[in-house]
Amino acid sequence: xKTILILGMAAALALAGCGSSPSTPTKPAPxxxxxxxxxxxxxxxxxxxxxNLDAVADAVPxxxxxxRFANRPYVALxxxxxxxxxxxxxxxxxxxxxxxxxxxxxKTASGEVYDMYAMTAAHPTLPLPSYARVTALDSGKSVxxxxxxxxxxxxxxVIDLSYIAAxxxxxxxxxxxxxxxESLDPTAYDTRGEALIEGxxxxxxxxxxxxxxxxLLARLTHALELDPSSSRVVLNDKLHRVQLGxxxxxxxxxxxxARVRERLDLDAVLVRRD
Length: 274
Fold this sequence. Notes:
The protein is of the alpha+beta class. It has 2 domains: 53-187, Barwin-like endoglucanases (Beta Barrel), CATH 2.40.40; 199-273, Alpha-Beta Plaits. It is 14% helix and 28% strand. A 6-stranded mixed barrel has the order 3-7-4-6-5-8. A 4-stranded antiparallel β-sheet has the order 10-11-9-12, with helices on one face. Strands 1-2 form a two-stranded antiparallel sheet. Strand 1 and strand 2 form a beta hairpin. The longest helix is centred in the last third of the chain and has 15 residues, at 210-224. The radius of gyration is 20 Å and the shape is elongated. It starts with 73 loop residues before the first strand and ends with a strand. The model is unreliable at 1-39 and 190-196 (pLDDT under 50).
């Protein structure tokens, strides 16, 4: 029997996301308006956007090689930037803007074609490609995006989301909103939807929202003094499952289950991949 698991929790830079390249930046974008709602005055939605925008799934982190050229230091709007060349933990808060039809179909800084209906984003310094969870501070809604572009380079803005990602966070008409940006470790996910190795695990909870799963994982890690390699968020069937393990035997898993109950008053179930 097999239990389905996922282990959790272009040769030159072409800066499409902010409408410029690092070597030849354009002037700063004008302020947004309620009519357009985007980063630029004329960057509103298409006349007939797809009808199923709410059904678009979050990006799923994958362990991809970093782009050979898109992570080099550059200058935009007179300011130098030094992108990160390793996927290290990153957390920041600030304004998120979005970009849409003005750049739809054009190349991003990674050389990929920008799709306003894909769950992507632009960031000044996070590695390309990388993944991040973006949470709207006013509503608590969050999305997972793949960062494949550079920008924004304007005021307090820390990230530029695609049209669809901004739609899912609910700030299209406002043009921007305050968010928390948290990098995700792609090596913690197996996009096949199965456990990377065989074994027995404890599942402590399952959530539709990733941030709730991460909060529980943090509680477990602190209360049980867990090694980070023995805990994870499992993404399967749109649920974020908090799991511990693997354990060498059923007896070891049951002993861990008793500790979870004793220290946090939480029930856990055993899951297995044979």
